[in-house]
Amino acid sequence: MVTSQESERRSRRAERRQGRRRADEPNDNFTRGFTALGELSLAGVQVSARATDLASGRVLFSVDDDVIMPTASIGKVLLLVEVASQLAGPGMDGFRILDREPLDAVADSGIWQHLQAPSLPIADLAALVGATSDNLATNVLLREIGLEAVRARTESLGLTRTALLDLVRDHRGPDDAPQLSIGSTRELTWLFAALARGEIVTPEVSRRVVGWLSLNSDLSLVASAFGLDPLAHREPDHGLLLMNKTGTDRGVRSEVGVLRGPRAGVAYSVSMYFADTGLPARLSVLDGMRATGLDLLEYVF
């Protein structure tokens, strides 16, 4: 006959066994992120998210991942893909110098607007876009590359819900595109997974774009959970390696990336569109993105 004390001990042992993962088995439990995103959705935030295992492509979680969302600066990745593609061809040299002009001027993100140098090589401008989402460098590259070329490249990749719509503007009028870029988290997750595998255009093009994106210094959203140095994370740090791109605008917070760890790798994308009426609303969105990041970190680590 099993006593109540023995039954309780067996129950506790079973719970411990059930809750323990093998040393070689990633944790598939994304409850923390799902809960945080669900609470934000109930509070009126438009939420879209997706994560896939980098090796198998298995979907780890998804939330309205086909919805087209404003993604702010994330669309600059499409510009970088086209720049890398043209640099791989015979007609463009990465050392070619481009001048900034008054019509290119724009504020907010980036450091070139604060530097004295009036001209920089194309490859350096792309590095500035990858590192600081540099708006001025973006506009100069777009003037050289052409928005139509970026759109054509986007279509050739099979992306139908993701696009760079315009150059960067301080103010958007009625005749301008309402957003700098749009995207679905499903397509963005696929794009970054394909970049990581060297499948975008050519392996050379993919490697160049990954190199630029690995410079990104914005780890304030999902990647805030990863514990990496924002200014230096191009090499593995405690077994973690990240490339990512963020997009930030009034009422927009978006991030797409690839995180590799000791156990696994994951491609992810999270986008939020919300009424940025006060600091509490913004901080709750950031908390939700960080909660998702903690689940991703646990999966790869």
| Order of neighbouring strands in the sheet with most strands | 2-1-10-9-8
CA-CA gap between termini: 43 Å
Residue ranges: pLDDT <50 for 5 or more in a row? 1-25
The name of the CATH topology is Beta-lactamase
Protein name: Serine hydrolase
Organism: Agromyces rhizosphaerae
Biased composition (Basic residues): 10-20
Domain Beta-lactamase class A catalytic: 51-273
Secondary structure elements and pairings:
Elements: H1 4-19, H2 31-42, E1 46-53, E2 59-63, E3 69-70, H3 76-87, E4 97-99, E5 119-121, H4 122-132, H5 135-145, H6 147-156, E6 163-164, E7 181-183, H7 185-196, H8 203-213, E8 241-249, E9 252-260, E10 265-273, H9 279-300
Antiparallel strand pairs: 1-2, 1-10, 3-7, 4-5, 6-7, 8-9, 9-10
Helix pairs in contact: 2-9, 3-4, 3-5, 3-6, 3-8, 4-5, 4-8
Question: What does the model show?
Answer:
- The protein has 301 residues and is of the alpha+beta class.
- The protein has a single domain, classed as DD-peptidase/beta-lactamase superfamily (Beta-lactamase, 3-Layer(aba) Sandwich), CATH 3.40.710.10.
- It is built from 9 helices and 10 strands.
- It has helices at residues 4-19, 31-42, 76-87, 122-132, 135-145, 147-156, 185-196, 203-213, 279-300; strands at 46-53, 59-63, 69-70, 97-99, 119-121, 163-164, 181-183, 241-249, 252-260, 265-273.
- The strands form 3 sheets. The protein has a 5-stranded antiparallel beta sheet with strand order 2-1-10-9-8, with helices on both faces. It has a 3-stranded antiparallel beta sheet with strand order 3-7-6.
- Strand 9 and strand 10 form a beta hairpin.
- Helix 3 packs across helix 5 (135-145) and helix 3 (76-87) crosses helix 6.
- The chain is globular, with a radius of gyration of 21 Å.
- The termini are far apart.
- Residues 1-25 have low confidence and may be disordered.
- Pfam families: Beta-lactamase2.
- This is Serine hydrolase.
- InterPro entries: Beta-lactam/transpept-like (IPR012338), Beta-lactam_cat (IPR045155), Beta-lactam_class-A (IPR000871).
- One of its GO terms (molecular function) is beta-lactamase activity.
- Keywords: Hydrolase.
